[in-house]
Queue: 4 jobs
Job 1
Amino acid sequence: MAFPGNILRLALAARLVLAAAPGRAQSGAADGGRACAAAHLGARAAGAAASAGHRAQLDRYDVTYYKLDLALEPTSRDVAGSAWLRVRVGPQALDSLAFDLYQAPVGAPAGAPTLAIDSVVVNGRRAPAVRRAGPEATAALAAPAPAGALADARIYYHGTAPHGNTAAIGNGLDRRDSVRYAGAWHHYQVLWSLSEPFSAQEWFPCKQVLTDKADSSDVWVTTTRPNKVGSNGVLARTVPLPGNRVRYEWKSRHPIDYYLISVAVAPYQEYVAYANPAGGPRVPVVNYVYDPGALDFYRAEIDRTPGFLENYARLAGPYPFANEKYGHCMAPIGGGMEHQTMTTQDGFTFTLTAHELFHQWFGDHVTCASWADIWLNEGFASYGEYLSLQAFAPPADAASWLGAARGYALRNPGSVRVPDPDTASVARIFSYDLSYKKAALVVHMLRDLLRDDARFFRALRTYQQRFGGGTARTADLQAVFEGEAGRPLGYFFRQWIQGQGYPSLAVAWNQVGPSATVRTRETASQPGVTPFFDLDVDYLLTFADGTFQRVRHRQTQALEAFDVPVGNRQVAAVAANPDGALLLLANASAPDTGLALSARPAAGALLGVFPNPCRDVLHLPPLPGPATAEVYDATGRRVLAQPVSPAAARLATQALAPGLYLLRLAGPGGSSLGQARFERE
């Protein structure tokens, strides 16, 4: 169900705790992912999908450059000015230019907010006609633009951006007359944009196609002093104008997606800090805060930003926009929005600031190529919260964050991948449980799967290097991690991204002499969709003497059994997934004296065999006569049968893969001569 943006924002705000005390790490209810989701859900456009015909027209060109030249004031949602789109014509000559720009729906009352097109000028010639159908606009060209050529389109327009209280749902451009911080309301007029996912057309003419990033952009805004204007890139200059007005000229020379272009206008106070990432240039962190009181209240949290940036640059690669800046504009959006180089936030908490900053790598530098894969943006940004907690907060905070994330992910049976993204609701795209929390746990499970932080973070850097400045899909990330894992990971992405639900493990164990046998039975919460999860599970064995032993076993079928050599220690307990690295429910393990063997029941004395572990040959004890050696793997399958004699009491093991095995010696007629467990290296 769709709600007007302001009603939905109030409902979400009741669940948020955003005005946390400065200087305190926030991990729990006030986490950055929830605040980010709230901001996105508050910006709901009327629809996602363009008509087939309009999309075909949009695909006839690529945007290379946006320049907005607008007049804006924080006292209204009025917009007036122009958008300059430089486009590269496709393989066929272009006789019309399609673009997106909001128009009040048919039947809207007189005076309803709408954006009127004054003229469209392409390559210096005015378009003779402009057809509009809702937000879809098409301008006929006075002369066709040749195939492969660059064309300049200037669209002059004016009007009032829509608001949630009118026929349109969503606020691409919004404003307030009051803001809240330090537990009190303050009279303050502020205007801001928030275009993700479908609302850029509510305030400027654009092409709303994720895979078509512009190579560069400029945002010029004229406003009344003492207002300041925050936007993407570098503030090239401010130009004084008559009538106490000023023009802010921002420029960015990095690729940028349509929904990451932004403005914020208010009588801001500027506060600049600096990050010094190792091996990179000094990065200014430019903060536009409401006023001196807001700066005093949030300064300690704002000052975390340089350290976060330096840590991310070390882990995921250089800050992508180091030659421009990073920064924040304050606006009462109910959370944060990762506008490229200048995030919009309504306040500053540990996890919100960490989340939006990591978006600069995951979401801005590399952008999901489809809303189906929004987890590539939001899952990694959410995991950035955990990385920052690991680096800058007490260990208990990071553990608490991970536990809370598991709780949110377990309560929603859906898939991380958004089905039917062209028709999915905004609420589904920005599902807190799935696109944020479960997705973050997928990232954590990839880290656990590699078992090597050096390889994990190298994979993140490879992903940034390979797809930076462009877009990526889940298959692209999979290929990067397969390169680090050295094996196919299709099963992992099928079950955790496309699949639904989670697995549960029932664990039983028993000890016989120097070996412990562990049996696991897996069940899936959504067996009709994902009947089984292939898992690399860690087990922690606790011994009566207070020592521990950790082993990893791959769950490749619903019922598994495996042996663990434990020597002369007595097993007291076995715990699966002890660190919570997997999205997995594991019951408290129970001893089971029926588990004498991991492979199959067998009688006979325990045999002394050596060397154990072995490589090519396992030596057996003296035999009373000819025998047959049968070897079983951990699942109970017989994998080797070999005759042995008293004169050559040894077993050739070259054909066995490394692992744990059960050896059973049978005499004539099948009588049991004994058994042993051994490991082949």
Note: Confidence is low (pLDDT under 50) at residues 1-29, 43-47, 165-170, 598-603.
Job 2
Amino acid sequence: MKSKFTVQILVAVLLISAAGCTSQQEAGVADATKVASLLDKGAYQPDIAAFMQIGGNFLSGASWDGSKVFFESRASGAYQIYRITEEGWPYQLTAFEDGVDFFSLSRNGQLAIIGASVGGSEQSQLYLMDVETGRLVQLTDYEDTRFGQVVWAQDDKSIFYYSNEENRQDMFVYRMDIATGESEKIFGDTAGVRGWCSAVDVSQDGNLLLLDSWTSNTSCDIYLMDLSTGEFQKLNDDEGNVEYVSLTLMPDNKTIWLRCNGNEDGTMRLAKMTVGSPEVEYIDDGWLDTRWELAALGVSSDYRFIAALINEDGYQRLKIREIAGGKELPAPPLDGVVSSFEFDRKGCVVLQFDGPTRAADLWKWDPRSEKLEQLTFATYAGIDRTTFRDPELIHYTSFDGLEIPAFLYLPPDYKEGEAVPFLVHAHGGPESQYKPQFQRNIQYFLLNGFGVLAPNPRGSSGYGREYRDLDNYKNRQNSLKDYKAGVEWLLENGYTAPGMLGIKGGSYGGYVVLGMITEYPEMFSAAADIVGIANFKTFLENTKPYRRHYRETEYGPLSDPEFLESVSPIHKAGIIETPLLVIHGENDPRVPVGEARQIIAAINQRGGEVDSLIFPDEGHGAKKTVNIIAMYRLQAEFFSKYLSEGN
């Protein structure tokens, strides 16, 4: 899998060009044919560094008047904010050494709040920006404090945001006057509410504020506050794990559009609520296919249009209609994953789209004229995009008969029945979902002869509440059995063979990696744990306080140390036979770096095979291009060493 650039081939091309030509025209035809033949043979194969420099442009915001579109890109080495100029050229607005964490555009499109932190700490501070010039004013500067979820007031004179500045644990809601920088807490413990609170939406008249408070990672309550009096009311009344998200308060100050999974099948659906009643009205009028989960929802600023992202087994497609009358409008002809969108006053939609063979870019869709316009153009670093491969969506049966969806990637020259090196990709979360989006490293491995299996085991989101909750607490290791069943499916169908299997994963996926090589120590010949959990007890003790409660509801509480010990790979490190690569960031606030150091030390102590890379300037994963290249180059070398020859 090392880069190849054969000088002799280039010399041969030049000799061919000069020999046997009877005329300039004949020479041109002959040269073009022979050079094309050489290129088709793949004389030059870019290394992993080139793949990691393939671009991607991610929607940050768009002004209501349609004049400004903003996106995030790491073209300069870390994720920064750019504005598309009238000429269509990107104008860089930020230059933070560690990039930006979030961007919130004012309603008039002239100002924005930037969130930025240092070294991957995620302790975002707030900055006020003039979006025309990029001029900045720092609004907050608190040590070990996180700010986020910024919502602008209707008059753009103030903002609402969450912060844990009071006790470093609970997220309460504050209001800040932009002109003076003065802030006050308006929602939190004084209301008898603790945990993770945030502002969601401001009423059209500016008098009311919608808020939510997350009581676990899969359950929240919603509130409506009168901003003039500070009085509030709780809007929902349920006892289960119900999520109320993507809320928009309509101009009548009574109707709320939202997504909710409080229905019988626990699937996220389009819904409405009326202020004063806890009842949720699920909309099933044929507009949306209710077999699939609703992944996102948005209402235009003039309350005329509503748009929805439907998650069809990982693929996400945009649907649009008028709110009054319910007339459906044409949808953009994009087949892949639409991730986010913004309306403008003309009814056009700016959206972010990517797919397995196409990097993320911004597009503009006019549903009236059905005109689709590409706004940004990701660079492919000189790599031929036509060589990239699409996956096949497959399903296999797990130990208890449950059907597990997965994406199967095969190398471009794969021959049926041929055993090739295979990587199993374990996603994070676990309340997340592998989607068929553009993955630079996966395309690199495919073009170098590897196959990749990316399952969505029990515990994944996108398939309803019941499926998502199947791995909670005492059922933790059942999800590992789903990965085992996926490997057995690969072997039974002849895609790979013993000695040619590797596994990699990040965050919770890193735990999956360690769990698999301790529960099934002979299954894999190489494993890469990126920012993963080795010891659930120390993880819960050392993760940031504002995250602990939400993780306990998923993984199990610190009050049950015996169970946490039973599922922690660190206590079975002595049986690890698989060569292991461990990658982590020194400043990780989610999964502290001590998790990596524990497993490295345990394997070294018994003389096992372990390599590691700890970044001093990163947190929960590498974000800077130079570090991303280093991380994936090491993975490429590692898996090539242990899997290419079926060791």
Note: Residues 338 and 353 are 4 Å apart (CA to CA).
Job 3
Amino acid sequence: MILEHIDGPADLRTLSADELEVLAAEIRQFIVDAVTTTGGHLGSNLGVVELTLALHRTFDSPRDVILWDTGHQAYVHKLVTGRRQDFPRLRQAGGLSGYPNRSESEHDWVENSHASAILSYAHGLASAFELQGSPRRVVAVVGDGALTGGMAYEALNNLGHSGKPVLIILNDNGRSYAPTVSRLSSSLTHLRLNPTYLQARQRIRTLIRDLPAVGDLAYSSVHGLTSAVREVVTPHTFFEALGVRYAGPIDGHDIAELELALSRAAEWDGPILLHVMTQKGRGYAPAEEDDIQRLHDVKVSPVGDTGVKVSPVGDTGARVSPVGDTGARVSPVGDTGARVSPVGDTGALPPLAGARDRLPPIPPVTYTDAFTRALLAQAEADPRIVAITAAMPGPTGLLPFEARFPDRFVDVGIAEQHAVTAAAGMAMGGLKPVVAVYSTFFSRAFDQANLDVGLHDARVVFVLDRAGITGDDGPSHHGVLDMVLGLSIPGMTVFAPSSAPEVEAMLDQALTLDGPAMIRFPKTPAPAVAEGAVGSGMSARRLREGDGSVCLLAVGKLVAAALEAADELAREGVEVTVWDVRVVSPPDPELLADAARHRHVITAEDGMRQGGAGMFLADALAAVVRDQNDLNGVAGPTVDVLGIPRRFIAQGKPDAILAALGLDGPGLARSVRRALETDTAATATPDPLRVD
């Protein structure tokens, strides 16, 4: 068998046309045998055999990046990149993944296989290579329904606008975009990809346009005629209207034709889409005849001790929106207290300082200003830093960055999902992307932050402006979910600055990390702090040391309220400990150890209480207390978690809303008094770490 001698893509390049045809048949039989034994995606992989062979014969993976959308169509890719021996344990615990997996092979770049995301990765990687002057190619295989997802069009729009050199392979297997095919359209495809034709066409157009008196009219007529002919014999010009050159359709089972088209398309210096027609399930009659996709994902059920039985019960029909699971949804159970309906000032805060051509000659007065200055300073020192936003360069403080580093600035439009996944691609390509969006819009891209960034441990820094209660814009704009979402992503470092100088310190630290980070700050003005009163690294700051009764763990903006409460209580003879948490995740061990020695701990944040920073810290504190109990039987403190209740809150002045929620200085002081009232006697022993 030829397949037994294929251990890497280089082995494919020595094969003749006849040998490739034999190999394709062997691969199909191998996949049928493997999938009907272990379960897996059958039809889509049988359809991309020739396409995969042509890709690996044309491009030099992994130097050239081959990306797979809906990664369940990558079995052939796995076979020809040295994983044949692992297929007996396909999709089994400890065995071969059913999707691309970076731990398996250097040929796998992306392992999240939610549909419609791969073009955003491709945009990010191509941007990274271009910025660094690398000639590496980026090839993205989409299809199998992926172009019915909106995120793919966010990426197409941005690819066309940016002109990044990405080769898009549209695998049209009847489950996605499906225009007609004819001999004329096939011939025209080869003509439009021919470099000689392209050069000649441009020369002719130039000559026509230069004709005296009639040049422009003649040019328009010729251009209109060629466009009309193209409209008749090829799919409509949707892709080219987006700035992505279109070529196709071509036969996706003709290796020679595929290789010719791929090699010519690779010479195009911008985004180009090659439309490839394939047959899902090709070579296996049950899959070829499966009109309702029962053999899309084959399920295998063990039967006694006699082996396995194929039970292709999988999908019961084509999906209209194959966007996959969007991750665990947060359904917190919040405070049952009275509803807050403050009536506040409807005027906007003064506009943020800064302009496209210069920095404001005044000290930072908002967190946003501090971020602008800090990012510019970091970018001056490190050319790998790029800034990304979603249609809000002004409010997020990125206009000065755009003016100073236009080649390192990306505004994707209202497309947060694409922004985050493109940032993941940039990080994979060696850049240090900083994504600046409003806190409330971060939730639009949680799936991408979780799986495209978090799962890949990508070095992306999220800067979330307008975090917490924003005030005038009401329920849709309060940024109260960011910490809940960020803390639920494994490996995400979460920073919460309490002053403008803290933003600079935290951005500096975030850019040194080996994984993702999030810095969140409010819209309101930043408190003034004394010189040197700024934290560093991953450490919290103890601002006041109390008498061991109550410890206040304040997050971000609420540090000022905690200090105000401490001053009020001190006048009553009560000394409380106050910590500026600074880094919510991972929490500072010194903070936890100190909090554990108090009778009561109160956490305060301007984010959602359920699943937020306070509950995260309470869990970490519980682990410390358990360790102490194991050592010496010490009982832990009670913990009261204060934050935004689980309800939609109307517009109003931020300070008024926080006061109504008990999250200002007087409100925190009242919470301390209530905690102390539970100390009914010196002999009373508090329950170990009761969370109220």
Note: The two ends are 68 Å apart (CA to CA).
Job 4
Amino acid sequence: MEPILLPSQHASSHDLPDDPVHLDAVLAAAVDAALAAQQACGNFEDPAADDDVGDMGLGVLSLLCLAWRGVSDDPALTDAVRRGLDFFLAHRVFRTDNPGEPFLRVRHSGLPYARYLPGDGEHPFGDWPSTVWAMLHAVNVLELGEGLLTGDQYAAVTELALGYWRWLTEASVFNPQQTGNQALGAIVAGLMLGRHLDRVSRDREGNRVTTAAMRLYTDVIRPSRVTDRGFALPAEHGAGHDQNYLPISLSFLAQAHRVTADRLFLDDGAELARHLDCRLSARGFDYGGPRYSEQHCGAEGLLGLRYFGAHLATDLGRYLSDRRVTYYPVARTGAPSGHFAFTTVWLYQDDSKWHRTTAFPVTSAYSLRHRTASVSFTSSHTPYLIDAGRAAVIESVVAGQHGIGPLLGCTLLTRPLGPFRIRDARDGDVVARLVTKAVVTREQVLLSVQQLWVAEEQRVTLFAVVPAAGCEFLAGLPYVEETEAGQRKIVSVALPGGAPFDLSEPGAVLHTSGTLHAGSLAITSGASLRVVNPPAGRTSFNSPETIGLTQEQLAFSLADDPRGYGNPDAGWQRVTDTNHVLAGPLPDSPPGSAVFAVRYGPHGDAPFTVGVHASADGLVIDAPGFSVVVGDPAGDAEGEPTLRVTARP
């Protein structure tokens, strides 16, 4: 089988050079490529593009204006810009309604807008965001192009930007796709236009636009935010967090703060950044979202990740980005496409620095992280993402239940019945989190299940204590490993030194002596460990029908709208089974209980010998590198969980 790569997760964002000399060289090369690719009519668009065409040419012009201000003295640039703008004004500004546009509030307004595709009736649903992007390009051209454009051109772009704003806010339903990043983009465009109008002594118009933009933000966008794990997030396509759009929203909030210095944008961006920080694994991997489940962005997110990483003093730049669109999206000609060029302009104008170093270990409300190892939790504190050994393990699915945790029969004991309790502890370089949940079995038996997670520099170790016999531990699905080409899907596992075990053979079982190699990751149990493959079928992940698909691709195939507007998270919830990595209980578990120990780390780690015994303070678990004491699940005299961790050489 050909390697299956996640298409857009390649390397950490903050590894891209961003020193002034390098950025100047990148921009100079972009100018050369753009001028060479300009068509005879002046058009800068990618002739092979099949979407996102309407703002392309104006975006390239904004990059050329940026270069004219600093790095390019090419005498051909002035003529190229003016010819390019003449083409755009003549052929890419539309004032007649697009046939099929379903979201106009005012018909035949005559106001200018940009089309997603130039032809009549071609995907009019995309015209609103294309107009937002075109307006953002326009205000950047106004800020950077004075003296480069002719006087008539400059005046035309000013009126064009005003017309775009009116079309977005008067002629059309505002934010018709219910997509937070697009709405934030419109707000930033309005704020920048208002600032520009103030600068050119059109204060009354500037104040009107700025006031309207702020009112839309405070009265429309903020109240429509959705909450995940206690964080308020812009709604993307009607839901919350999205792997592609969240960093883009961070860039918009960063620019809004740069334009206004309003603390509201800084605080809202910081909340969004904290949410992303606790989701991201140690290597910057994550998945999940209402439209793009594992499609990471490239240049569009750099400003926001750098700006808020610096503000919060956290390494948000570990976020795995798309290296096909490093500093700007590229057309098939090799020249800049112009799409999302406004984020490139802002990145060049911003002087914040990447925060690459963090005080380890790191604990957040929903994650534990050390240097190359981490575990991330859902809102109910069920683990769904483990990262160690340069590989990621995601939640398993068994009989339609998603998670990582104890398995009793066909019941995954992870859904809390009421509130759950958390206790963190640390000693030296070892950090631990104990989660105590009341869960109920199919037989209506209430169990207090304790799960303990310990993070060290290179590994994550879990322990679970279940007051019932006959359990196993569902240890997650080995999903991707890091390669030079990007994140590669794990399609086979093996015993150490053994032959590959095909994860797509329906119902096949692999028994191990306690250690399993999954790509670059070793999963080791303190007791038995086996792998059970799912049955055939399109709702089983890694079945013969789905082994060639990524998590997102399978989720989209099961979503309500596989064309790209449905919710891949909803599709993922329709998956009924994945491969099961199942660990058995430790042989010296207390009578009537099952204690599990599973370690995720690199190949060749120290032998995993685990001992467990009862003491007056609780259950004592000894493992390589540390020991822990887990108190009674009922807690101390005040009902609080008790946990003690001791690091050892």
Note: Residues 181 and 449 are 40 Å apart (CA to CA).
